[in-house]
Records
---
Amino acid sequence: MSSQITIKPAAGRSAVEIAEIVANPGFGRVFTDHMAVAKWSTEKGWHDLSIEKYAPLQFDPAMLALHYGQSIFEGMKAYRWNDGTINTFRPLMNANRFQRSAKRLAMPEPSQDLFLSMVQELVKIDQAYVPSGGDKSLYIRPFMFASEVGLGVRPATEYLFLVIASPVGAYFDPAKAVSVWVSTEFVRAAPGGTGEAKCAGNYAASLIAQAQAKEQGCDQVIWLDAIERKWIEEMGGMNLFFVMGSGDEAQLLTPSLTGTLLPGVTRDSLIKLGNDLGIETHEGKISIDELRSSLANGKISEVFACGTAAVISPVGMIKGEFGEIQVGNGLPGEITMRLRKALLDLQTGLAPDENSWMYRLV
Ligand SMILES: Cc1ncc(COP(=O)(O)O)c(C=O)c1O
């Protein structure tokens, strides 16, 4: 059975040390005392599943992941609720995306049961690290890579699947809108490539554009499609939404999943949540020219990005070779912040879970 995990409790930090970390977690600075580990080989399939002490891994310099990049990951969060339970958000969507990423990179696909059991057992043993309140949560990072040793270019015959976790606070300051640089020099993903997969190489290839955005005084990069360099796809590590119109008339538009965007769990949830809140929400295409003219004539009143790490992040300024254009008054918009609160309230147990999206871990 895939979920037969051997639990090997290890001595970790003291309760006082953990309380200090949890009170002021930062983002991804400190990891919990344990990690979940599973091995896969063509001979044995999944085997040696364990929860063990968080510790450095030892590997051979010829480990295949280092050379040919078979490496994928996920990102999800656990929230401590006022009733004392610890819950996560739509974990099967992460499990399914992990399977699709694995398939695209010719890696073995962990079952939903294995994925969820590894996450759940890790959170259970390290539950003291789950912060409570506001924007705080335990960030959970499942990841898998080719651990076989060799230099042949082919799918590896051995893999390691691990889950680690880190208590986190807010990723961005939600009260501040981010500025974004529209990259026309670099692209993130092309049709037939790996844009839909959450694989390490996509992020490596994005860093140069992110550095360029910083040089231009921007916080993040916006990606256009690879063929026409015209259609807006997504932002850095987040999906994008545009608020068309304002007040009661406002509608939401998010770029369609064309195969080159990462299908975000938050994106999917906001499409449903927007409609539930009476804000008609559409998937479609929007070009950079249309965005510029709609910002100029006020047809688009707000822009925001969404993802697990930052939840919802308002966009206040868009820059590119064309110059720069402010979004609304440059500050977080009303609909953006309404959606942010609705999603966070749901995730932290302050609002009813009408779609049965929350999953109790502890
Ligand atoms: C490239 C990219 N787009 C979008 C997202 C948002 O996805 P999710 O809402 O599942 O976190 C992420 C983060 O995982 C990402 O890395």
---
Amino acid sequence: MSMDTALPFISHGKGINVWDESGKRYIDASGGPATFCIGHANEEVNDAIKEQIDKIAFGYRAHFRSHASEDLAEMIRTKAGGSLNHVVYNSGGSEAVEGCLKLALQYHTAQGEMSRRRFISRERAWHGNTLGALSVSGFLARQEPYFGSLLEASLLSPVNTYRPPAGVAPENVAEYCANELEEEIQRVGAETVAAFIFEPVVGAAGGAVPAPESYAQRIRDICDRHGVLMIADEVMCGVGRCGTWRALEHDGVEPDIMSIAKGLGGGYVPLGASVYSDRVAEPIFRVHGAPITGHTFTGHTTACAAALAVQKIMERDQLVEKVATDGVYLRQKLEETLGQHPHVGDIRGRGFFQGIELVEDRETKEPFSPNLTMSKRTFDTGFANGLIVYPTPGNVDGRKGDQIIVAPPYNATREELDEIVALLAKTIDQTVESCAT
Ligand SMILES: Cc1ncc(COP(=O)(O)O)c(C=O)c1O
């Protein structure tokens, strides 16, 4: 991988701040890629990592069990709730999604339904960089180099009330998009469909876009009626980021399978998990004995010890509850400061996962020309100002559209949130100005 030599070298971090080697401070308002959920350099987590490494870094899962991995699995089961009682660990989000896709296929194989091999997903969705996860993603720029080698998948309309499908009123988006799923299942034949995968709140490909009320309930019902499994990709929006531990909790819906990663280890270690229900587990264990997936580092002991420490802090300090409350505060601040900005078309999201869509014209929703690379420009201006936000382009049609995600660590104080919003407003103004010159 080539490195961008224009980037500064990282020096250290503390809480929501990071410093480069020149001594410049940055407010990490996006928690990196919506990952650093308890901030940087937490001593308790670092101690837990050291304690584990001093004993042993990694006990290979085919030879030993470990308390770290079993205690973390128990924590995940408890937090996920309902019948999501089973966990396969992996090393990040793409692997977690890959694991979910494979669990769905294995379930149908075990059920004797080998014809169910197809996945349905949505445009403007990001599920990861491994070939399977990339195949079900709707992110043109990242897929294009691999066209011809991707799995065939059905991609439905994005679910976005600010940019609804042509001719659909915002209030009808949930019904229209849910119907689209059912029509696609019927078109290809339910007996060929393994699962529908979606992000409950779209991240990297949309800019923190929650589905409207009733959408998740409707697709749950459609999946059930057609024997199609529901996979919730909660890699970015899950593990508390939206103010509930599972993002879909908000909708009162339980998926059959769910991917989690970023917030699980809080960025201290690479770790992901594919979580699945009793219903999915039953035939898999009965017919095959166990999920047939996994990697050398599955359940890495130090990774699990670090994530367990992160999750214990989230629980003890009630950080998910804090995100629910302070997410409302953050949103209010964003609305107050940017809600009437001539180049802010939409502010949306949930909890500490807020998206701001930048537009050329607020009235017509006309996006900026993609040649201006507005989201990247905003990131660059923010970076120069000592503010880190997460830029996402392409929400309109895969190329046009500019969004900025604000996703601070869950323990950011209200003063820090104020500072983020003030710096972001200044950054957006400067970025717009820079285009005029
Ligand atoms: C929703 C979602 N799924 C999967 C992934 C892939 O995760 P990773 O980059 O850790 O492989 C991401 C990464 O941004 C994501 O946002």
